[in-house]
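> call design_seq(struct)
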């Protein structure tokens, strides 16, 4: 079965320039290959990435907060539209034809007004037919005439509303007097001259002669004088009464206090409501407008979202709810972090400086032309990840790819790169908490859960002045998320070094990893710029040594 849903191409949480630009470029490559792929992101675009997107005239990918199944994923379209002004007769037909047990009702503008069930309808029919009160039900004389297929004998304003009850007169003139009330629709058979004359004494809505009955001229004259509509139906009194009852608008009997859902609600959130109310169907609305239904019997998500992960492969770094999705590909340049899949998938994992390097070369290998915009974005990603080719993660392959991309994008590589890095460096208006979470990634080293953030600067002073507040923020994040250690790399891209701040325990892990006295909360690491190559591997190794 082919899916109608697109494949999301999505990078890691706390997106950086590589994650955003690689998602855009790889989604475009997939589309060039005929697949319905859409680039997505899990968080805000940082200042550096924003510079690149604006410079090359590209839009940020769509924001996806998570992949948890939502109402929209199981929503059924609502093909049968019933308005509150439609008659019960029409409703009955619709329900029978479509074998429905409940139907949402809207107003003329499509705004959800209520819901009506088979039992609401049945209830109406179980009630004594000739006792049905139509007052305030909004039934016009025209509707009464039309549904009973009556011929009008004495015309009056047919737009007038019935303001009483349907009465069947079968007794004597004497009983009529007690039975009839102003505003009633009165059904009577032929030959009841006395009764008819008496009935017309009262201010009724209309008189209907049943069974195609005859009616005396005196009766018609009196009706005309008293401004009472008279009509003749081919139906017997009980059939006519039942039909008139069906003129009642749906709005009169529908339930107005119904439970409705919105498309973006999580399935996990609505399941409890459904379990406790147990209706068959629940309307789905958007700004009050009815757009579909959720069925109690169809709470399983038929097909999980398909995603392609770029620039990461670890569950802890992936979009929330990834466990609900089907990962179809991974394009990445990081260590394998233990992701499991349900089936074989396409993985392209290369030890290069940037995911964009891999993707640019996939374009060329597939002989797909790279537009100047895409070339500019891929170039930006490489410059960002390799810190303008200075990071030890940078390979000759990255540099060569970047040079080709710069030519396609029509920019001077070093000048553009410096400008872009500058736009993304420094702390600007960031709070200590925002700095502590900058570019934050989660790692599992043996039994240890570790957070590592990174901010790039052109000088240490500005950030290190905030050291105490940063350590406080890091401690808060670490405790709140239940992590063992939280690290912040303050990386000087001009000097090519890092001040590593850390909180949590065991600090000996940091001491072992970097061969330093780590009793405090900071160590200076000259030549260190890469989290992936110079921070993560020594920590992995230190944990491994610990476990030997
Ligand atoms: Mn990357």
């Amino acid at each position: 079965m082919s899916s109608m849903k697109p494949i999301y191409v999505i990078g890691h949480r706390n997106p950086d320039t590589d994650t955003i630009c690689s998602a855009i470029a790889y989604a475009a490559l997939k589309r060039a290959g005929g697949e319905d792929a859409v680039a997505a992101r899990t968080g805000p675009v940082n200042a550096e990435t924003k510079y690149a997107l604006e410079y090359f005239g590209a839009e940020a990918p769509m924001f996806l907060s998570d992949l948890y199944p939502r109402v929209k994923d199981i929503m059924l379209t609502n093909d049968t539209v019933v308005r509150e002004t439609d008659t019960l007769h029409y409703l009955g037909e619709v329900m029978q034809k479509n074998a429905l047990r409940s139907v949402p009702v809207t107003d003329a503008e499509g705004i959800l007004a209520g819901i009506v069930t088979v039992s609401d309808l049945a209830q109406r029919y179980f009630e004594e037919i000739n006792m049905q009160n139509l007052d305030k039900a909004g039934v016009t004389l025209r509707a009464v005439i039309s549904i009973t297929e009556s011929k009008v004998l004495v015309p009056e304003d047919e737009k007038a509303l019935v303001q009483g009850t349907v009465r069947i007169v079968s007794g004597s003139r004497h009983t009529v007097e007690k039975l009839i009330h102003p505003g009633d629709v009165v059904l009577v058979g032929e030959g009841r001259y006395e009764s008819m004359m008496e009935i017309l004494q009262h201010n009724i809505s209309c008189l209907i002669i049943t069974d195609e009955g005859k009616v005396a001229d005196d009766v018609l004259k009196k009706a005309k004088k008293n401004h009472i509509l008279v009509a003749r139906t081919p139906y017997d009194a009980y059939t006519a009464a039942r039909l008139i009852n069906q003129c009642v608008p749906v709005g009169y009997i529908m339930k107005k206090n119904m439970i409705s859902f919105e498309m973006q609600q999580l399935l996990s959130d609505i399941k409890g409501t459904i379990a406790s109310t147990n209706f068959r169907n629940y309307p789905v609305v958007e700004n009050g407008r009815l757009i579909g239904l959720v069925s109690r019997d169809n709470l399983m998500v038929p097909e999980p979202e398909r995603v392609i992960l770029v620039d990461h492969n670890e569950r802890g770094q992936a979009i929330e709810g990834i466990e609900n999705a089907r990962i179809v590909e991974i394009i990445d340049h990081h260590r394998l972090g233990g992701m499991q899949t349900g089936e074989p998938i396409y993985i392209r994992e290369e030890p290069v400086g940037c995911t964009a390097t891999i993707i640019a070369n996939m374009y060329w290998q597939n002989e797909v032309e790279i537009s100047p915009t895409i070339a500019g974005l891929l170039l930006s990603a490489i410059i960002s990840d390799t810190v303008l080719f200075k990071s030890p993660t940078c390979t000759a392959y990255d540099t060569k790819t970047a040079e080709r991309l710069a030519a396609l994008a029509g920019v001077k590589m070093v000048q553009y790169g410096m400008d872009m890095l500058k736009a993304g460096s420094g702390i600007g208006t960031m709070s200590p908490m925002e700095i502590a979470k900058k570019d934050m990634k989660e790692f599992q080293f043996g039994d240890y859960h570790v957070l590592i953030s990174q901010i790039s600067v052109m000088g240490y002073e500005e950030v290190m002045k905030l050291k105490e507040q940063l350590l406080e923020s890091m401690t808060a994040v670490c405790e709140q998320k239940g992590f063992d250690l939280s690290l912040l790399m303050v990386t000087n891209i001009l000097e090519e070094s890092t001040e590593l701040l850390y909180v949590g325990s065991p600090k000996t892990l940091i001491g072992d990893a970097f061969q330093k006295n780590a009793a405090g909360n900071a160590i200076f690491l000259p030549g260190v710029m890469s989290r992936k190559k110079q921070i993560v591997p020594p920590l992995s190794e230190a944990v491994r040594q610990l476990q030997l």
